[in-house]
Amino acid sequence: MSNTFLSPIVIEPLVRAALCEDLGRAGDITTNALVPDGSDAETALVARQDGVIAGIDAALLAFRLMDGSIDATVLQPDGNGVSAGETIARICGPAKAILSAERVALNFLCHLSGIATATASLVYAVRGYRARICCTRKTTPGLRGLEKYAVRVGGGLNHRFGLDDAVLIKDNHVAIAGGIRPAVERVRAVIGHLVKVEVEVDTLDQLKEVLKLNVDAVLLDNMSVDDLRRAVVMVDRRIVTEASGGVTRESAPLIAASGVDLISVGWLTHSAVALDIGLDHLGRV
Amino acid sequence: MSNTFLSPIVIEPLVRAALCEDLGRAGDITTNALVPDGSDAETALVARQDGVIAGIDAALLAFRLMDGSIDATVLQPDGNGVSAGETIARICGPAKAILSAERVALNFLCHLSGIATATASLVYAVRGYRARICCTRKTTPGLRGLEKYAVRVGGGLNHRFGLDDAVLIKDNHVAIAGGIRPAVERVRAVIGHLVKVEVEVDTLDQLKEVLKLNVDAVLLDNMSVDDLRRAVVMVDRRIVTEASGGVTRESAPLIAASGVDLISVGWLTHSAVALDIGLDHLGRV
Amino acid sequence: MSNTFLSPIVIEPLVRAALCEDLGRAGDITTNALVPDGSDAETALVARQDGVIAGIDAALLAFRLMDGSIDATVLQPDGNGVSAGETIARICGPAKAILSAERVALNFLCHLSGIATATASLVYAVRGYRARICCTRKTTPGLRGLEKYAVRVGGGLNHRFGLDDAVLIKDNHVAIAGGIRPAVERVRAVIGHLVKVEVEVDTLDQLKEVLKLNVDAVLLDNMSVDDLRRAVVMVDRRIVTEASGGVTRESAPLIAASGVDLISVGWLTHSAVALDIGLDHLGRV
Amino acid sequence: MSNTFLSPIVIEPLVRAALCEDLGRAGDITTNALVPDGSDAETALVARQDGVIAGIDAALLAFRLMDGSIDATVLQPDGNGVSAGETIARICGPAKAILSAERVALNFLCHLSGIATATASLVYAVRGYRARICCTRKTTPGLRGLEKYAVRVGGGLNHRFGLDDAVLIKDNHVAIAGGIRPAVERVRAVIGHLVKVEVEVDTLDQLKEVLKLNVDAVLLDNMSVDDLRRAVVMVDRRIVTEASGGVTRESAPLIAASGVDLISVGWLTHSAVALDIGLDHLGRV
Amino acid sequence: MSNTFLSPIVIEPLVRAALCEDLGRAGDITTNALVPDGSDAETALVARQDGVIAGIDAALLAFRLMDGSIDATVLQPDGNGVSAGETIARICGPAKAILSAERVALNFLCHLSGIATATASLVYAVRGYRARICCTRKTTPGLRGLEKYAVRVGGGLNHRFGLDDAVLIKDNHVAIAGGIRPAVERVRAVIGHLVKVEVEVDTLDQLKEVLKLNVDAVLLDNMSVDDLRRAVVMVDRRIVTEASGGVTRESAPLIAASGVDLISVGWLTHSAVALDIGLDHLGRV
Amino acid sequence: MSNTFLSPIVIEPLVRAALCEDLGRAGDITTNALVPDGSDAETALVARQDGVIAGIDAALLAFRLMDGSIDATVLQPDGNGVSAGETIARICGPAKAILSAERVALNFLCHLSGIATATASLVYAVRGYRARICCTRKTTPGLRGLEKYAVRVGGGLNHRFGLDDAVLIKDNHVAIAGGIRPAVERVRAVIGHLVKVEVEVDTLDQLKEVLKLNVDAVLLDNMSVDDLRRAVVMVDRRIVTEASGGVTRESAPLIAASGVDLISVGWLTHSAVALDIGLDHLGRV
Q1: pTM, whole model, 2 decimals?
Q2: F148 tagged catalytic
Q3: Which of A19, A27, A65 is opposite residue F5, by nearest beta carbon?
Q4: Are strands C277-284 and D262-264 parallel, antiparallel or unpaired?
Q5: Is E3's pLDDT higher than 80?
């Protein structure tokens, strides 16, 4: 049981679009010219690097949408750590379809596993601390649901999925509203009872103001570790504290040591390095 | 005049989808609660890092699809190098729409500028050599056209856009066809006169066989620099030579020194670090 | 300034689809046969009943998507109460396009105004009490965003927009998880910091258990007014209390008198009576 | 054998869209956190009110699109009358998918069954008379095909499905064409041989004029029952007579007694009360 | 005033799809490499053959969707006959966009003008007779609305637009229903009052049976001209008579001489020869 | 093994759209009223003319998307020549679904088989010559991939699939670039190594200029057979020669006799006559 489930109905349109993007108007002209219709292949998705797997369902869907008779056995499901050389899944069936779907399947799998791997490495970096690792809305256009899923697979938590599922009051909102207090009050008057409110602050003075208001969380943006520590003391666990800005594998444990509840990291989704995974052809049946 | 033009009709659906992905079912609940309808804002897209800009049209389209009355002045068009702190474009108009479109606009711009910047840095690394830098089909699902555009903006060339616009015979194809010669001949018999044929080889022996056939280009996969140099001598410019595998900013000039025509690099599109760009709010009108 | 803003980019696809649904494959064959191309018309959207207007933007978009030169003046914007006979907006322009878009424009406007009117009447019924009126996920397929917008326009609050923007633990979840406590704890371990947790209870005993846990809101389902009153006392404003089940214009003030924070009502979105609005043709220009 | 068949290919996109609307970007976060993957459930769609069932195919499709292994047994197919407490269908399979699809399935089923029930009650109200009950184009945007299907299921007939499948000349068309005669003649000159022509009239004088022309049906709009009776005598079954305006369960038999062929009712599709149906969880397998 | 109007909202998705189909993932690589951004062109759509124009709106939309600043002046609107060499419309604006949209614009215009021209030539062939020329459902997938529009532009009438807008009882239906009479009666019992019923017959005996029933039209399929003449006498204008099968420009007047009301022709939409139209470049501004 | 494979994932959206286009909002009202749900039918796709089959997969998909239980046996797969009267495939299953899908299945099959048949007849006309028959971008909007597939099935080769998969420099490009040489050089500087360059010429002088440049193919447009012969001599097989303009079954062998490599023909895709194929009902099971 986990919280990382991804409904197939939601990813199917993305995988279909990616296959059509790669097939173009003429299809896989190399494979179509060279691979006979009846030819079967046994292949394996194999990790070329150590990492954490995410997106195997999207990869398998790419194969199955190309040909419903392709058979897959998953050895390392999403969330599993793999070492270089380990087989993630066996893919068997019509050689033509496997070859034609290979790149799209890998593009999903490598991208999402890259995000899960980066997340897991940050989660490991802050082990022993209270802090959880968290993503942002800095995602690749069109892939937000998938990328935030990969963050969960890597052991992270998800921040807002969009502009509509929580209130986050930033400096510009505060400026327009004429202060933190009027901003929070105006928002509270209109939002539903299941919507949380977070406020972004740059200084401890702003934090002091936030703590007088009905606010669920505070985003401590680009603060020094010292200030973070002071902020945590001031908040005293009454609301959630989130640190952001300048997070690296090196700085993460220092930030976590301040006692914040969350560390949010944009590059997990916008700049994680893809995990190197390949499709090995084991032979023809 | 350039070859980097991108038809708006092609990117509009992607930008619309990204905006709807971020707005969700309830829209920007923070901004809607806090920003009055008549309020205008003057903002600027500002580089926070040095880099090469790509994707400004997608970014502007995000603002304009949100509100057609938003006005933009581009100071640094696609292809321009910028320094940290430089203004890329001024965006003025309804504050509500600008705030709601901000993240989507930046997600396109930072992602594509990251690719252009990485490409430009490799192009610079091989300056003085014959070799051109080239992308692959290892792209983010759904964004292939945009990402390959960013590679061109960065000074690179595009490899195949999909499985359908050129023949690339890989080891598995060769195995199924029973050799390089039968593979090439079978392909030649059926493809149109405007389709080029490239063959992937791992060894100089395979290259020798390729050179006897009607082939337009050869992909020298994961060869040592020494072997690449020998390959270039063997080919003697009769067909295009492309090197791939293990390309970094450090290895690129060594590979280029072998005399190959092209160096193709998967990570330009699958793992480039996003360029840090922000939206500064200059004030309210 | 309000929280009822609806991004045009989100409603445009719905309005386009509705126009195409009505035009079919042959278009408005009556109008096309009878109305000359140059003919202009002056028309008015007129209320035939008292009510609250919602959806005027969708209605205007129907006219403008049919012909971009149609001109509209809104006299009674969304949220305004109107009396039978009052003009809501004037629509002037090509007669052909106005006649062809009329039914689709009205179908949106009457449906959404019906929801806003029903909401406003319940809001009025509980005036003076703490309770706010709230909708549910019992919406018309495809129109959730619009219908929840209409609830806001009528003075109500929105409950969850979907399965993904808050946790609502119902009896079946509790049964599968093996109790309320394990359910809440399991959920808390995986959700993001901006996601709220509500639990549905049928009895005061269940409520007692809920109050020991880290829960943001409790849904008091189908309880008697007496039990609701007791529940409110037990909760003592520590978490949000929501009553649901059997809410009518008559029962609403009785339920509100119990002191609950929210009264949620399914029929606001699935069974509200459409507000009668027509398009009067004032003349031809 | 019946005329109420609905092609699955036509409803599938609507059900997919409704599921995605409810799942949002993160999916069913409650169920995903609490329900194990292997857990099965036995559930039943149960009527909470008396009524006529319509839309069971759409409801089952919601479950099956969520998980193809869900099994359904329909006990009360579309068109059957049910009493409160009766089981409509049994739904068995993965608990996760059943819980996640439940609301969407019910939203279709309750909405369409509400329309069928309302139609059936009007059909019953005019039993013994010649008059058939008929719907209009006042439907919910996007759901016209489904709603008109529900009217058929309830025993009603369908009026036009759109602007393109028959000619209906209204007062504005007559005004622009310069009279009923020129309007009818102009239309007859251009329409295909399978398109029928109906004219809307408010007075018996207009009816007299219509009867001299090549018209298939006349819409007697908002006439008194006395005038309807006179109209039926004047028409003498030469063309179809349709009455509209102010139709309620009480007025319907009075209108039907006038001898008209059809009574068309807008509120069947725009304001019918949803039939209360729930999903009972019978246990876990 | 005419019946040939086509709503832009209906054709826009088709034109967008056609442009994207032609632009592919990389766009117009020739034009983008060679035509500077600021360069304007004056061009003209010129007929290379005599014919009747149809589809000019689709052609202009192709240009305008590519670049909204393209200006067009239509000299020969839809329905006009043109001679080889005549200018149909002038298209001025950015050279890049005009060159990139040229082929798509012509593909619509030549295809639809071909259908209009073929229709007009059949209409001319039967001039002086009662018979009108009519199309069928044998259309190009995806283009039915446009092709039937072109038939109207050429002076023809439209038969059914789909399976849903009229009843056409064919031999297989009759066989399954157990005879013409039960088929007609079963249909009449369930269809709306605005739906017409046509029956296909092969023999005069079948026609005799049809004439005893409540049928609106009869399709005389593949009958000899002699039998058609006898059929017309038998029918005596009580219902509409439609002849089909083996219609050519030569046979059409012979068939028309039988006195039938309609002659339906499949090849108008499935096999009409495209009208030769080109885009002449008049110069650069 | 062949190059004519067409991915089902690419054609499915086209077939779905065509079915929905034909079913409209009410579905097949004739069949739904007359054919009982349990009734099965045995039918056969039968050629009414001699020709070459193409598109059987699209036709079968139309049946199967309507009802997944329809069973098909293909006797004459794509590429086979058939004589009038020959059975192409047997289609068995629910009578309702077969009747409702019949027209759409045939519309795809007749259209594509018409193109394959026309191509095959031209291929036959030039047998014994070097010349291959080739299509153009003059295709039906939305069907380019399918139509070019049908050309391959008929034995032809494909020219460009779109503006993006090869460079074709035409007269207007040359004019804007200031000559053939600058045009070719400018293009060569920016295109990828797998993109070929073809130049269109009208005269032998232009050809002479082309032969000095790095060009892969030359399009000899509307040249006399004498000039074509001279051109072939001048080129001497160094680059590909393509003749276009005025190609008919009669002129094709004369053109081929000039020795050109390719003859491209627009009317194969825009004006081929549909092959007459019908669905025979063999009986009811």
Answers
A1: 0.97
A2: no
A3: A27
A4: unpaired
A5: no
